[in-house]
Specification:
alpha/beta; seven-stranded parallel beta sheet; six-stranded mixed beta sheet; 37 helices; 49% helix
Length: 996
């Protein structure tokens, strides 16, 4: 039962009043506030210790407005949160300048530099962890500062009474007083702590505490309010303090002292919560004792607790257990949907399990704008899309001077806030697909890191496009240069807080990100956080630091800032909030997700450096106090809300059983009829028709190819289904950058350097008197020396971009003596290098099943052709392979399924002019390994020749003709490839071979 509102007397003392925190709590409070207004004939000032119930209290005051009010008190009583009341302190302009969180973090950073002892203790901290440590140190220092607030209160009141209106003089006096009190308190606190960490903390406290700290400004504001009431006693309004949650002991002392002082000038009512008829557990009723331990129940309290439990309307509390995470999310979603269907429009989702609550939110998003979802759990800005865009730029500029990784570059270019058209100063329509094209080039070249590597990959792609009837894209180079210039600016910057902030703002403008972020709700709040880095004329603006430290500071600031969602009109509202935010708030229904023994209750991390025992000495929050407060919050939620659903996951991630919270289990013992419902997913049944064989049928309207490359034909031979998916449908597997260094760019460089080497060899041989013509030793030495020099030159740019390629170069240089020996051996047999990198092909004529004559072009680019000086009609085609001989031998076992060399041989024979082999017949073909295992392969076999090329050619001709006839006849194609091909097939997610 609620207590009657006290009668305001002339006695200068605090009036105590308690309300019952049940469904009628706001009504009780509103009527009491109006009673106070009617008795005093004044408009009271109502200050709530927490801001959560503000709107509810104001609405309740309007609903319960007494009739025929005196005009002096006709307006609603002023209701304000404690934090807002402090900010509205009179004469706040006289307070010492408030330090921002950023400035306090920087002060910790500077003191670590100034004091070698402190720096030595923390030198092992990483850049990202250092700022987190700074925040923890500041929080701990604030706790120590709160411990001296009672001592400060009396001194501060005296200072305010005797101060002049000169803000500067007042601030100086305040600083002296604060320093004196800290110096007096330090020995006392230091005796309470003996470990090294606490010694560090106390040292920090002495160095860092100032009159601009938020803890002290809180006391200044309270003193200013008190002084104003004293100076204007005739106009001082009644003060109603509403304690919505159990305060920390130190806060309780301070507010009691303040209320007692204020009562000397105006009526004061201290409103507390009476848990006698609401508590459902002993700790919620008895609370904690004076020494911080859980209090024991008296006999009367035991009886009261039993009455509370038996009177509870537990029939409206649903217990729902789900076995798996997804089932839990779906069960919570369905519970919310059922409340919406029942007409409830104000629903709360208490997120004891934050991850599951986020999943529920995603599932509820399908309801569209009819449901307004507001997250009050402290959604951090660093989890938003805007922060991801900012982070992509920060990761790019922190890359070394050689350049970022391709992943970092592409992540930045693909962020939705980047305006590529603005970067290139081109119309947006000309920039469509630009990043996708760059990604294809980098992945195809496996250009993983470094500006030079990226340039080389783009240049080679443009060169290839120019020779293959395509248009080179110069915009890619311009885009790369644009980003590189800004990256270089950061590398050359002698960084301090001021110039780093200015350069970042310039970057955001240049890239168009500032304009994009300004249009986004989260982006706008992110920019406001970034504006805090503008230190103006602060002493901290010239603080120098390394780039990684500054970037970590920005990320820490984004992690610490919360994203506030904008409200909108909707048919129903869902509030996602922590349990503590449900205090004195009214909801039509509440769904609590995460009611298992691991997550309810949930304790906050203890402050760094502080044990629970030390927290008691400092009169701050303890584990027992948190436990009691959550028990009371949970009791209030169950008692005051008409419909409550309690959900939990009955099995943990590792499959172990999870029981419901101990609080729920204790109630179940007292309420045996309170049963658990098992959430069961909806089941659907149907009959499946098994597929006996994977068959691809070509659509009539699907255009068939007019040309086929050797690799495409190999795909057709491996599996027609694979060719159908890849070459006809144009589907490609999304490629990524593999771990380590792939030989794609290196392989291209090997081909290029071998071409250059052989061209240099032909030029040297034409010089009169060259020693390499008749002297075999000189020829060998020249070849090794020249091939090594050309290799260094060709790999130089790639190594500048990605130093990992140096290992590939060194591995190749170890191959050079063996390669030269193989070349000299070929020369002893009469073979000479002729030309390289020639595009050759032939027209395949065949008759389709419909009787129509057709032609299809088979063509590719051959690595190399050699001629035989001993036989004027003989030539050979060679293909370089950057793989071991073991793999090449496996390839040779199925030469008709991989007829690349046979295609080149037939093309050169049918059109000798295209290969510059007039009068010669290509009747030899071989693969050459550029990756021989020098340590294990004692024979150093480098080449594998295809035997009987002339005899294989008729069989190959017949095979390729039949294959093309079947393809153009649109015959069903069956997936029949061996497992080795299927394992890496791009079509394995589509093909159903594995089902038969």
């Amino acid at each position: 039962m609620s207590q009657p509102f006290p009668t305001i007397s002339d006695q200068k003392q605090v009036q105590q009043w308690a309300i019952t925190p049940d469904a009628s709590a706001l009504e009780q409070l509103a009527k009491g506030i109006w009673h106070c207004a009617l008795q005093t004939k004044q408009r009271p000032l109502v200050v709530l210790s927490t801001a959560g119930p503000l709107i509810g209290v104001r609405a309740a005051l309007e609903r319960h407005r007494p009739p025929e009010l005196d005009p002096k008190i006709a307006f609603l009583p002023q209701v304000i949160s404690f934090a807002d009341w402090l900010e509205a302190a009179p004469g706040a302009w006289r307070f010492p300048k408030k330090q921002s969180d950023l400035e306090r973090w920087l002060s910790v950073y500077i003191n670590l530099r100034k004091h070698p002892k402190l720096k030595a203790w923390f030198k092992a901290e990483s850049d990202s962890g250092a700022w987190g440590l700074a925040k923890s140190v500041i929080d701990a220092c604030d706790i120590l500062s709160e411990a001296i607030m009672v001592q400060l209160q009396a001194e501060l009141n005296q200072l305010i009474e005797t101060n002049t209106l000169d803000a500067e003089v007042w601030s100086q006096q305040l600083g002296v007083m604060l320093e004196k009190i800290i110096a007096q308190s330090y020995p006392t606190l230091s005796r309470k702590v003996v470990d090294q960490e606490s010694e560090v903390l106390l040292t920090f406290w002495r160095y860092l505490s100032s009159a601009g700290d938020a803890v002290f400004r809180k006391q200044f504001a309270m003193a200013a309010h008190l002084q104003t009431a004293k100076a204007n006693q005739d106009q001082a309004r009644p003060f109603i303090w509403v304690q919505t949650a159990d305060p920390k002991p130190i806060d309780q002392e301070l507010i009691r002292q303040y209320l007692s002082d204020y009562a000397q000038f105006a009526p004061v009512v201290d409103v507390s919560l009476d848990w006698q008829s609401v508590a459902l557990w002993s700790e919620a009723l008895a609370g904690v004792s004076a020494d911080g331990e859980l209090a024991e129940l008296t006999a009367d309290q035991e009886q009261q607790l039993q009455q509370n439990i038996q009177a509870a309307h537990y029939q409206d509390w649903r217990l729902i257990s789900a076995r798996r995470f997804e089932e839990l999310a779906w069960a919570a979603t369905k519970a919310i949907e059922s409340h919406l269907i029942a007409g409830k429009t104000n629903i709360a989702l208490v997120a004891q399990d934050r991850l599951a609550a986020r999943r529920v939110r995603a599932l509820l998003a399908r309801l569209g704008p009819a449901l307004n979802i507001r997250d009050e759990t402290g959604w951090k800005i660093d989890t938003t899309r805007a922060a991801a865009a900012m982070n992509s730029w920060l990761e790019l500029i922190r890359a070394p001077k050689e350049g970022p990784t391709a992943s970092a570059l592409l992540e930045f270019l693909q962020n939705p806030c980047l305006d590529i058209a603005a970067c290139l100063e081109k119309p947006p329509e000309l920039c469509i697909g630009l990043v996708a094209q760059l990604e294809d080039i980098l992945i195809a070249s496996q250009a993983k890191a470094g500006w030079e590597t990226f340039y080389l990959a783009i240049e080679r792609a443009n060169a290839y496009a120019a020779t293959h009837e395509a248009s080179p894209n110069e915009s890619l180079l311009k885009l790369l240069q644009f980003i590189r210039e800004r990256h270089h600016a950061w590398q050359a910057l002698n960084l301090n807080c001021a110039n780093a902030y200015a350069l970042l703002q310039r970057n955001l403008q240049d890239t168009g990100m500032a304009q994009s972020l300004e249009k986004d709700a989260a982006g706008k709040q992110l920019l406001e956080v970034m504006n805090n880095f503008d230190l103006g004329s602060s002493d901290y603006q010239r603080v120098a630091m390394r780039l990684p430290e500054w970037i970590s500071l920005i990320k820490s600031a984004l992690e610490d800032a919360s994203y506030e969602e904008a409200g909108k009109e909707a048919k129903a509202n869902l509030s996602i909030l922590p349990l503590s935010s449900t205090r004195l708030r009214v909801f039509d229904a509440v769904v609590v997700i995460g009611c298992d023994e691991q997550q309810l209750p949930a304790f906050s991390e203890p402050p760094l450096f502080f044990s629970d025992a030390l927290n008691r000495l400092l009169k701050t929050s303890t584990i027992n106090a948190q436990y009691v407060q959550q028990a009371r919050d949970f009791s209030q939620l169950l008692i005051s809300c008409a419909n409550v659903d309690l959900l939990w996951q009955s099995k943990s991630k590792n499959g172990e059983p999870l029981r419901p919270s101990a609080w729920i289990q204790r109630l179940q013992i007292q309420l045996p009829a309170w049963k658990v419902n098992l959430a069961k997913p909806d089941a659907y049944s149907g009959l499946a028709k098994p597929v006996e064989q994977a068959v691809a049928s070509l659509e009539r309207d699907l255009p068939l190819p007019l040309s086929v490359s050797p690799s495409a034909y190999k795909a057709l031979r491996d599996c027609p289904y694979k060719y159908y998916v890849r070459s006809l449908l144009g589907l490609r597997e999304a490629k990524t950058f593999e771990d380590g260094f792939d030989a794609s760019l290196a392989g291209q460089s090997l081909h290029a350097l071998l071409r250059n080497f052989y061209q240099a060899l032909k030029t040297e041989e034409q010089k009169a008197g060259s020693p390499i013509i008749d002297n075999m030793s000189a020829r060998r030495a020249w070849m090794e020396r020249e091939l090594s020099a050309i290799s260094e030159k060709e790999f130089k740019r790639i190594i500048e971009g990605d130093s990992r390629v140096l290992g590939t170069l060194r591995d190749w240089q170890k191959q050079i003596p063996s390669f030269v020996a193989w070349q000299l051996q070929r020369e002893s047999q009469g073979w000479r290098y002729h030309n390289a990198e020639h595009k050759v092909g032939f027209d395949l004529h065949f008759v389709g099943l419909d009787g129509e004559h057709r032609i299809i072009r088979i063509e590719g680019r051959a690595d190399r052709f050699d001629i035989n000086l001993q036989n004027p009609e003989q030539a050979e085609v060679i293909d370089y392979k950057n793989q071991s001989m073991a793999k090449i031998k496996k390839r040779a076992e199925h030469v008709l399924d991989d007829p690349q060399l046979l295609i080149y041989a037939r093309a050169a024979n049918e059109s000798p002019t295209s290969a510059h082999l007039q009068g010669r017949q290509v009747d030899h073909a071989q693969w050459v390994s550029l990756k021989v295992d020098i340590k294990r392969d004692k024979k150093l076999q480098r080449a594998l020749e295809i035997e009987d090329v002339s005899q294989l050619m008729p069989q190959f001709d017949q095979q390729i003709t039949v294959d093309m006839q079947n393809l153009w006849s649109r015959k069903p194609m069956t997936a029949f490839a061996p497992d080795g091909v299927c394992k890496y097939c791009e079509a394995r997610g589509i093909c159903r071979k594995g089902m038969w």
